[in-house]
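Task: encode each sequence below as structure tokens.

Item 1
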Amino acid sequence: MTKKKTVAEKVKVEKKVVRKSESFASYYTNDTQIQTGPWDVRLIFARIEEVNKDTGIIESVREAEVHMSPQHALRVHTLLGQQLTKYGATFGPIPQPKASDFDGGD
């Protein structure tokens, strides 16, 4: 049984032209939620504004939501992994915060 070719494998792309739509926006995010359903994947991007260690309350502002097919989400996952591997090779390991940075401990 032969593997079915994807569109990218069927079409020889000479050049990809990308233009910004009139509604294009660029956001910084440091808080992301992911929701999945049988037909789509939703990424919800937010920006944390305040962390109150005394009350344990984190305040964030939702900036944008992106909906995509599971197939496209899998491709984004692959590409993001590749880019983070390249980043690590260039700049070294990406530091991760310790749990104590969030729980108020040492």
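Item 2
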Amino acid sequence: MTADPGYNQTLNQHLHEAAPAGIDGRRDLNVSRAEDPLYTVSEGAAYLRTHESWLRRRIAERSIDYVKVGALVRIRKSTLDALMQPVTARPAASA
């Protein structure tokens, strides 16, 4: 499924303009939307090489950030990249 680039550009522009301000009251204008595109759940799952249901569960649990446009759910690439950061498990200290 190939999305229309003009549609994605318009959607990203709309989301940027409608995005809520951060804690300090300003939007982060330093991040280019082209550098941090929005993915559908299906595209995000393919990017992570996991099942779509796994990603939908994380969204339902609100354990990852996502964007809603009406009924549509989108996930920023930076959010998906953060999920792939390595986690080091350390053994429990013996008592």
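Check on item 2: The two ends are 55 Å apart (CA to CA). Strands lie at 38-39, 67-69, 72-76.
End of task.
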